[in-house]
Structures are given as C-alpha cells and as structure tokens.
Design goal:
CATH topology: Rossmann fold
Strand content: 5-15%
CATH class: Alpha Beta
Number of helices: 9
Helix content: 40-55%
Distance between the termini: 43 Å
Low-confidence stretches: none
Radius of gyration: 18 Å
Shape: globular
Structural class: alpha/beta
Number of strands: 7
Strand order of the largest sheet: 3-2-1-4-5-6-7
Order of helices and strands: HEHEHEHEHEHEHHHE
Number of domains: 1
CATH architecture: 3-Layer(aba) Sandwich
C-alpha cells in the first residue's frame, strides 16, 4: 500500500489517546463520545446526570466524571479525575452548554446571564487551562469547542442574547488560545452547529410552524442531526485536522450562507 493510502486509512484513528467530552449525558456530547471511543480513544464523559453518564461510560468502556459545570467550583476536579482514571488527556471537546432564560434581551435577568456565561464560556476556558499542562507535556493535543450559529448571526423570533454572546465568545477564545498555544502543537478550534434536534431545540421541532420555518431557511433538503456534526469534531480532534487551528467551522446545512 502506498504511503499516502496508508496515511488516509489512519488519519482518523485515535488509538491510545485520552479524550474528555463534556455535556455527554445526552445529545451531541453523547454522540461525540461514542464516535471518539469507536475510533479507539479512551473517553471520559462529563455531565451532571449520573444515571445517564454511568450508562454511557459502561457502553463505551470509558470513565464517568459526574460534575455540574454550571457551578465553576466543580471544574477544577475534572482533569485530575481523568488523569487518575484514564491517563493524561490530549483531546478535549467542550460540548456542555445551555440556555437559562427565554426573555428578550432587555429583560434577561442578571443571574441567568451569569449562569449562561459560566457554563458556555468560562467553564470551557477553565477546562482548556486545566488540560494545557498534560497536552504540552505530551507534545500536543486538540481542543474542540462546540458553539452555535447563534454566535455568528441573529435569529429572529428566538430571544437568546446571553447565549449568543457566550457562543461568539467561544470563537474569540478559540482564536486566541490557538495562537498562544500553537508553539506547543496544541490546536484549538470551534464547531458551530446550525439547527438540529436537541433538548434545547425540541420546542422548535414540536411546532409545525417553527419546523416549517427551519426547513424553508435551510438550503440543504434534510433535517440536521447530531451525526451531521460528529464528522467535523472527529476531523478536528485527530490527525486529519493536524494543520487546522484557530478556526470556527460552521455545520448548518447552508443556513448562514444565504
């Protein structure tokens, strides 16, 4: 087999690598954890729902780290638990995120704004800081932040000012960390999904009017799923994306290309 063919066959493999996936008790986080494990990684799954997390960890032969990351006091213990249980992580996928208010921007409660920022932006930064030493010592690593097209465009009829700000912040954080840590061969990227079914968006799909709005404004003639996002995350996590850093990759069926 030619060297190029051999590399093509191996470029998505993750054998022997330790990965952390947050927000892994459901939706995209759980799907990403399964995908990384299927490619050979030893995966630590992090979320607050113990029963779901334990079931997933058993399924993928991984490690369950039960933490509510919206409480920043819980963040510092995540990486040490992973190091003790699986070894030094060289992949971090920050998939945990949520919306804590449906109020319009002029009425968003300060407490909800802070809670949104803590979970969606500050926790990913603290986790990135925590995985920096083991990644540096290993000679490199990959951090993939999960953002949203809400961080790039306004979405009429869906009030989410603090959520959008937190997701836009992830792209800024990504670019800065990528530049600062490039000399350590630590790559940092963001994947910004468009609309797909999740606990946050279920209410949209349950309304025929909202579902029709999504179909009408998405150029590709299919409904997005978590599986449509996984490919971008896997690409950026491993050797296939070895020369990609500081980028926000939009996976939205063409929504933002209109």
């Amino acid at each position: 087999m030619a060297p190029e063919h051999d590399y093509a066959a191996r470029m998505f493999g993750l054998d022997g690598r330790v990965a952390i996936v947050t927000g892994a008790s459901s939706g995209l986080g759980a799907s990403v954890a399964r995908a990384l494990a299927a490619l050979g990684a030893r995966v630590a799954v992090v979320a607050r729902r113990q029963d779901r997390l334990a079931e997933l960890a058993k399924e993928i032969d991984g490690l369950a780290v039960v933490r509510d990351l919206s409480d920043l006091d819980n963040v510092a213990s995540v990486v040490p638990a992973v190091v003790d249980g699986l070894g030094a992580p060289t992949i971090l996928v920050n998939a945990a995120g949520n919306m804590f208010t449906e109020e319009r921007a002029e009425s968003e409660p300060t407490a909800a704004i802070r809670q949104t920022m803590d979970l969606n932006l500050i926790a990913p930064m603290l986790l990135a800081q925590a995985v920096f030493p083991p990644m540096r010592d290993a000679g490199g690593g990959s951090i993939v932040n999960i953002s949203s097209i809400s961080g790039r465009v306004g979405l009429p009829g869906i009030p989410q000012a603090s959520y959008a700000a937190s997701k836009a912040g992830l792209s800024g954080l990504t670019a800065e960390l990528a530049v600062q840590w490039a000399r350590h061969s630590i790559r940092v990227n963001t994947v910004a999904p468009g609309f797909f079914r999740s606990e946050i968006t279920d209410v949209l799909y349950e309304s025929e009017r909202a579902a029709e709005y999504l179909r009408r404004n998405t150029p590709l003639p299919k409904e997005g799923t978590a599986r449509d996002i996984i490919g971008a995350v896997v690409w950026l996590a491993g050797d296939a994306g070895s020369y990609v850093t500081g980028q926000t990759v939009v996976v939205d069926g063409g929504w933002t290309a209109r």
